[in-house]
């Protein structure tokens, strides 16, 4: 939708950074440049934007880093050379065909991104699973939300965020755990802050080993030891039970599993739990009391729970608190996972992960596989789950996979154990990188580089953290020969011989097919298409074809009926041990990683905005004064930080905001941005949660010492 006047055209869209999904109004100026402001009419953000969103136009207007035409090299000793689209895609198709013929379809794979649109996810997923015949598609959302996905499925029967953002203003107890929304989901946090300001009785509990900006605003900051989250949530469960602060009717009528849960949480005393967590008993009691006294108990979490070798258990034990108190499906109550990326939710909708099928269908369910195969009209869908994010690069490193196609993500900065990732990329027979920017560290490992259209250069759809689906219009043309990502995949599919099934005239047709694929599922959006999205601006799923008069579904489970077979939610008895990497004499410190306020992911976009770099421009490590003193380290000094996988040198920030024995590094820095030594993820480990396969970025064993130049 656009409003014309003489010199400018306005478009409504959504921010392309985090999963808050703020509405933006884009003004296109006559000279082809754009300007971005908050969209006052967007229900998720009501006109607000954070520092990253406010500066979005710089990333589109500054094209200096853009990939402009396809490039290719015949061997790794040659530089990349400009070629035509046909040459690049002919060669890619020829090599994919040859590898598939020799080694089978599981020798190739796609590694995609929560920044891909729903349509892009949909066509890539369809191509690899339905036509190439492998389930080797995974996404950087694996690094982000996959523990929450499994947590929701095991408790509620479906990957379904039950709440909406309007629950913020209806809640009076916020349980923010393993998250720093003040920096990482700023507009959600601004809504919490405004609500607290207007209602001083609102309680904010923050659980984090670091005193973050979010923790600084808490009524109660539980600065627990890393890895002890389950001990804490379980003991809060025990306190709620002991004081009869639970909802027995809800437990009896709508849940299973309470007795085993009770036994589990009673296996520790409060004193024991407080000791393990490094917290005062009185503070834990107070947290339980705040929950009990509230009318609206909203828990918010992100990577502190998800990015863990026991990430699923952390999710289960948190959701348990909602189930034993019946605080779900009611205004202002519920578990609320905050999504990291703008369309990670859309990727989950289309099943763009190694173990999923469209519309949250299950790859391991033969009926679901048959249903999807019939719908796509392609080859038989393999019953073998594909490689997940870290597994893909391990498989490239040891030769089980031969070719990888990386779309809109920068694994050479973002994956754990970058030396392993590098080995994978170097060992791969063929690497395709489809992206917008030469600021990605991954591009230089490519045999073929495919330039793609960026945000605002193509029509697409994103779904945000509250299941809100928003249409993103095309505002400007992509530079050079860059193409819409769906067009790239369509052309490749044609060259592979699958053209008929990818013969879409536009992205609207792809979206229609996606909507149709959801028919009869819990995430049914058969009532949707581009026209409705353009007219209504945004709706929340489910949105069935009977729902065309409204804006979809704000809140799930209002009837206390869950998506499990017997409609009852499952309370889980969760063991509380942490299976993270063990500390040792050589590596006695815990390294945890996270985001900083004004950077996003691997900085390929935010890193080119001067205003954003002014906040923090260089990698650093935070350590506690006692740990610094023990090592004779002073503020601002360059230190060496080492894990068993690698080492690097960064400046030190000494602060009491972090627990003794713990250190923190921002995750954003790679070699291109930052410095040669600032690659945070050279240090992190590849341990993953057994069920979600999400890596344990929050707990790596490291040592820090003064650095002496060789
Ligand atoms: Fe964009 Fe997230 Fe900031 Fe909103 S909160 S403007 S979606 S980065």
TrEMBL record:
GO molecular function, one term: metal ion binding
Domain called 4Fe-4S Mo/W bis-MGD-type: residue spans: 8-64
GO BP annotations listed: cellular respiration; nitrate assimilation
Gene Ontology cellular-component annotations: membrane
UniProt KW keywords: 4Fe-4S, FAD, Flavoprotein, Iron, Iron-sulfur, Metal-binding, Molybdenum, Nitrate assimilation, Oxidoreductase
Cofactor names: FAD; [4Fe-4S] cluster; Mo-bis(molybdopterin guanine dinucleotide)
Membership in a protein family: Belongs to the prokaryotic molybdopterin-containing oxidoreductase family. NasA/NapA/NarB subfamily.
Protein name: Ferredoxin-nitrate reductase
Residues of the full protein shown: 2 to 711 of 1177
């Amino acid at each position: 939708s656009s409003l014309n006047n003489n010199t400018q055209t306005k478009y409504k869209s959504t921010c392309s950074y985090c999963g808050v999904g703020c509405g933006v109004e884009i003004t296109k100026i006559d000279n082809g440049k754009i300007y971005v402001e908050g969209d006052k009419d967007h229900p998720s953000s009501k006109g607000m934007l954070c520092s990253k969103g406010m500066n979005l136009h710089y990333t589109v207007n500054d094209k200096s880093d853009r990939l402009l035409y396809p490039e290719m090299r015949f061997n790794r000793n040659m530089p990349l050379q400009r070629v035509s689209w046909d040459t690049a895609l002919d060669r890619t198709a020829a090599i994919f065909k040859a590898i598939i013929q020799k080694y089978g379809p599981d020798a190739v794979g796609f590694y995609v991104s929560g920044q891909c649109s729903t349509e892009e996810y949909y066509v890539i997923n369809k191509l690899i699973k339905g036509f190439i015949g492998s389930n080797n598609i995974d996404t950087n959302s694996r690094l982000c939300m996959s523990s929450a996905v499994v947590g929701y499925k095991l408790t509620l029967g479906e990957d379904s965020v039950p709440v909406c953002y309007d629950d913020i203003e209806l809640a009076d107890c916020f349980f923010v755990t393993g998250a720093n929304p003040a920096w990482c989901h700023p507009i959600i946090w601004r809504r919490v802050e405004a609500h607290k300001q207007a209602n001083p009785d609102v309680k904010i509990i923050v659980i984090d080993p670091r005193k973050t900006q979010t923790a600084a605003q808490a009524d109660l900051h539980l600065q627990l030891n890393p890895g002890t989250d389950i001990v804490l949530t379980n003991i809060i469960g025990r306190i709620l039970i002991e004081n009869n602060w639970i909802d027995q009717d809800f437990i009896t009528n709508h849940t299973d599993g309470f007795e085993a849960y009770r036994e589990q949480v009673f296996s520790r005393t409060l004193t024991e739990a407080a000791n393990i967590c490094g917290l005062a008993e009185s503070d834990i009691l107070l947290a339980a009391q705040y929950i009990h006294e509230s009318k609206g108990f909203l828990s918010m979490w992100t990577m502190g729970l998800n990015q863990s070798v026991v990430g699923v258990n952390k999710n289960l034990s948190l959701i348990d608190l909602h189930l034993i108190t019946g605080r779900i499906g009611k205004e202002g109550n519920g578990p609320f996972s905050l999504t990291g990326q703008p369309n990670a939710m859309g990727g989950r909708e289309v099943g763009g992960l190694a173990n999923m099928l469209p519309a949250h269908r299950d790859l391991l369910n033969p009926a679901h596989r048959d249903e999807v195969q019939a719908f796509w009209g392609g080859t038989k869908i393999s019953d073998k789950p594909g490689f997940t994010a870290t597994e893909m690069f391990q498989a490239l490193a040891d030769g089980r996979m031969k070719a990888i196609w990386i779309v809109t993500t920068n694994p050479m900065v973002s994956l754990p154990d970058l030396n392993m990732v590098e080995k994978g990329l170097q060992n791969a027979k063929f690497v395709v990188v489809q992206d917008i920017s030469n600021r990605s560290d991954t591009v230089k490992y490519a045999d073929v580089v495919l330039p793609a259209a960026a945000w605002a250069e193509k029509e697409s759809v994103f779904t945000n953290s509250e299941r809100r689906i928003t249409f993103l219009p095309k505002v400007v043309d992509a530079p050079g020969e860059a193409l819409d990502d769906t067009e790239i995949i369509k052309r490749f599919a044609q060259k592979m011989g699958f053209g008929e099934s990818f013969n879409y005239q536009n992205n609207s047709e792809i979206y229609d097919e996606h909507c149709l694929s959801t028919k009869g599922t819990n995430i049914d959006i058969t009532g949707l298409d581009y026209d409705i999205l353009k007219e209504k601006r945004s709706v929340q799923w489910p949105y069935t074809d009977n729902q065309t008069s409204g804006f979809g579904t704000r809140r799930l489970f209002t009837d206390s009926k869950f998506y499990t077979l017997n409609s009852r939610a499952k309370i889980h008895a969760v063991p509380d041990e942490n299976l993270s990497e063990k500390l040792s004499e050589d590596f006695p410190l815990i390294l945890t990683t996270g985001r900083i306020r004004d950077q996003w992911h691997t900085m390929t976009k935010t890193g080119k905005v001067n205003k954003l770099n002014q906040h923090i421009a260089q990698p650093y490590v935070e350590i506690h004064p006692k740990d610094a003193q023990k090592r004779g380290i002073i503020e601002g000094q360059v230190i060496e930080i080492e894990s068993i996988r690698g080492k690097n040198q960064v400046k030190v920030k000494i602060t009491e905001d972090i627990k003794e024995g713990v250190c923190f590094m921002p995750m954003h820095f790679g070699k291109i941005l930052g410095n040669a030594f600032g690659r945070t993820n050279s240090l992190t480990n590849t341990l993953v949660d057994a069920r979600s396969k999400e890596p344990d970025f929050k707990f790596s064993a490291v040592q820090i010492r003064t650095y002496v130049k060789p």
